[in-house]
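Lab notebook, entry 262. We have the chain sequence and a SMILES string for NAP, and the next step in the workflow is to get a structural model of the bound complex before anyone spends time on docking refinements. Request logged below.

Task: model protein plus NAP, output structure tokens.
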Amino acid sequence: MALTTALVTGASSGIGYEIARVLASDGHDLVLVARREDNLRQLAHYLEREYKVKAVYIAVDLTDPQAAQRIYDAIQEQNIPIDILVNNAGFGTWGAFTASYTDRDVEAIETNVIALTQLTKLFSRDMVKRGLGKILNIGSVSSFMPGPYMAVYNASKAFVLSFSLALRSELKGTGVSVTVVCPGPTDSEFHQVAGTLDLPMLKQVNLMGSAQVARIAVRAMHKRKAVEIPGLLNKITALLPRLLPTRFVTWVTKQVLRPPKR
Ligand SMILES: NC(=O)c1ccc[n+]([C@@H]2O[C@H](COP(=O)([O-])OP(=O)(O)OC[C@H]3O[C@@H](n4cnc5c(N)ncnc54)[C@H](OP(=O)(O)O)[C@@H]3O)[C@@H](O)[C@H]2O)c1
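Result returned:
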């Protein structure tokens, strides 16, 4: 019998796909959320076959302001208590702020910030009532520093870090924990979506595998840790902005993220 049910957003690829796999291998039933229905269907079938858990999916665009409520209502209808909420869905955009499409920036905020907040609000209330639950939010090393040329993305991930730590503190003693995991550059579809494949820094670092990030993230969540940063280099990258002047950190980040001249 499954232990509990976990809802994972952004389960159609990358880190979210792997988190769903780790949770299923531990015996958790799954509710999988993302836009690409085919990917979700295939993953649900695979998890049911491989790990003998129940996996359902909801294909939804999290930029839709009604998305979180629709997900919540669909789950209520099926009477599935969610004990683990993984807010993983997210994307970034790379390039000069003034040159990029406003819509993409707004969609990033809607996905990375607004949907995450709405889902947390809806599901955390029920968790607190039951006195039981774990919330895992996916931030980034970008959470720790302003990111010229990825200004909106870094700001959205700074929100995820700050929000998670604050909510964790509020929920202390309720039986509900909040963990924020802040990965560094990871091998997934992220860089294709963000258009960062040409970023010189990416060619110089070893990308961590999504499966490894997922294992670290789930372990941190089960230990009810506040913050987890996978990998030593990423831990150092996240620590430096807290030791150095923000102006200098922003300048360094600008050099790293500056698009190459064509
Ligand atoms: N890869 C990295 O280097 C890295 C580093 C630090 C943090 N992160 C964070 O890790 C998380 C997972 O990203 P990833 O690396 O695994 O990238 P990914 O492979 O591109 O996965 C992103 C997931 O988010 C979903 N998603 C994106 N926009 C959505 C929307 N509007 N509605 C519903 N779902 C949406 C995608 O599904 P659909 O396209 O099917 O909707 C996909 O499942 C993100 O929050 C990202 O910011 C990534």
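Notes for the group: The pocket of NAP is lined by residues 10-16, 34-36, 39, 61-63, 88-92, 111, 138, 140, 183, 185-186, 188-190, 193, 210 (CB under 6 Å). Worth checking against the assay data. The mean pLDDT is 96.
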